[in-house]
User: Which sequence fits this backbone?
């Protein structure tokens, strides 16, 4: 098949052209990469975060590449901030076609060491903020008769590491909420899915991958024996945000290098 025809077919299937995409956590390590990747696929990006300086850098990079982006301040811990930001985006774009809940935090502490303040902050950002932002956006999607929500879950939604009790609980909640959204909102033309990244190399996880014992532990549990990169999340996110996944809802997609599948096998007999 001619390359031009292939390109047209792929564009028809995966293009995000004319889709207004609200992305939270857009100034973060993963969020920035997703923002650029989705914009490059045609998405009109509404970039949301509290780190406005960093957000401006992301917006400029997208625009310099000839793509579309506009920044908005949103604190997902405050319902008033969520509501006012959504209203501004609706006023500017007229609609929200895709919501991507990417904002999230973690603090690695033992179960017995976690203080209430840490517990509340992780839960408020990872779960409560996601809940009420999705609720707010879904009301607009219902009026439009269509919508698409993508939540950022985690490998810790189904498997745990030490020191991640609150984070894991919040991400397990994200998985459950994704199913609830899919079940309750399908009647309004809204679908919901979740991404579950495995062990991704970002500025925040560099300390773990530089640690001789922890990096060895992780590599032994990942079939590909390496961390993933934020760029390796872009393709699946584009697929979920596009009409290519139009009959997909309530699912959690793992991008983990084979970690959940079982990691590196022990020795076994083989001719190879």
Assistant:
């Amino acid at each position: 098949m001619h390359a031009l025809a292939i390109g047209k077919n792929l564009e028809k299937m995966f293009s995000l052209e004319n889709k207004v995409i609200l992305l939270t956590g857009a100034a973060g390590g993963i969020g920035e990469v997703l923002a650029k990747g989705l914009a490059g696929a045609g998405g009109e990006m509404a970039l949301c975060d509290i780190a406005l300086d960093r957000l401006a850098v992301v917006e400029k990079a997208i625009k310099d590449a000839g793509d579309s982006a506009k920044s908005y301040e949103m604190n997902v811990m405050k319902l008033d901030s969520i509501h006012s930001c959504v209203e501004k985006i609706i006023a500017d774009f007229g609609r929200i076609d895709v919501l991507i809940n990417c904002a999230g935090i973690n603090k690695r502490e033992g179960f017995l060491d976690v203080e209430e303040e840490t517990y509340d902050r992780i839960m408020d950002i990872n779960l409560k903020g996601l809940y009420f932002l999705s609720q707010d956006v879904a009301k607009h999607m219902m009026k439009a008769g269509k919508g698409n929500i993508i939540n950022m879950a985690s490998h810790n939604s189904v498997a745990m590491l030490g020191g991640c009790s609150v984070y894991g609980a919040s991400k397990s909640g994200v998985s459950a909420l994704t199913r609830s959204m899919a079940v309750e909102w399908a009647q309004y033309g809204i679908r919901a899915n979740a991404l579950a990244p495995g062990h991704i190399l970002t500025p925040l996880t560099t300390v773990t991958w530089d640690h001789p014992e922890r990096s060895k532990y992780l590599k032994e549990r990942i079939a590909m024996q390496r961390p993933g990169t934020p760029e390796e999340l872009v393709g699946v996110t584009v697929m979920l945000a596009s009409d290519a996944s139009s009959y997909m809802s309530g699912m959690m997609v793992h991008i983990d290098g084979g970690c959940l599948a079982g990691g590196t096998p022990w020795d076994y007999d083989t001719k190879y």
